[in-house]
Specification:
The protein is 33% helix and 22% strand. The protein contains eight helices and ten strands. Helix 3 runs parallel beside helix 5 and helix 5 packs parallel to helix 6.
Length: 272
Amino acid sequence: MAVPAARAAALTKTYGRADTLVVALDAIDVSFEEGRFTAVMGPSGSGKSTLMHCMAALDRPTAGQAFIGETDIATLKDNALTELRRDRIGFVFQSFNLVPTLTARENILLPLAISGRKPDPDWFTHVVETVGLADRLSHKPSELSGGQQQRVACARALVTRPQIIFADEPTGNLDSTSSAEVLEFLRSSVDEMGQTIVMVSHDPVAASYADRALFLADGRIVEDLPDPDRDDILATMARLDTRAGRPRHAEPVAPPSTQSSGVSGRAETTEH
């Protein structure tokens, strides 16, 4: 059996102690297969961001294990953790996290520059062309739209050919058109480049681009939905909210998109 790109075994994260103890992750077991796009969903406080941070070596679990490939993150010292995050993990954040004084080209190549590695020219060209930024490489972030900035961040995550990319609400600051462009790029990076992506999101449209949607509540995985579409995700969210006793407000019905998503028919609209 192939080793998954990442996995958790009884992964637990707590904060505080005694009467103030908060269990953010409650002995989670999960695997993320190579070449798959997984959306992680759940209400605020469900543990979805904590799961991503522990799996991406940005936070240490209280108990249990988190693996990237066959590497147990908990066994690594600080220098080895830094190398793991730099060389084997890609990150895409809601706030883009670009260096404002660097051009798009320099931002994309920054992880390689930090590690003293030279870029593969063919791979760099392929990533830049796929993300549609070939004519914007000399521009600084302030000269780019929000969607273009996020595509620079996506290209930066891909340029090192990481084992897995973690994306935290990557379309949270974007309009519907820019969101669709970024999500289509993430989808194509899985389908055409064999990339593995784990994306935290609250948006059912964004999650419908994924191969799988995990739903967390109270630090546990409560649903694992394969090949989700928007309606499946909304129905699951409503069912979980009802089970938890939370009122579920009606979702606004988006008008039909005038532009096809071009992504396996799963994302039915590009509107939030």
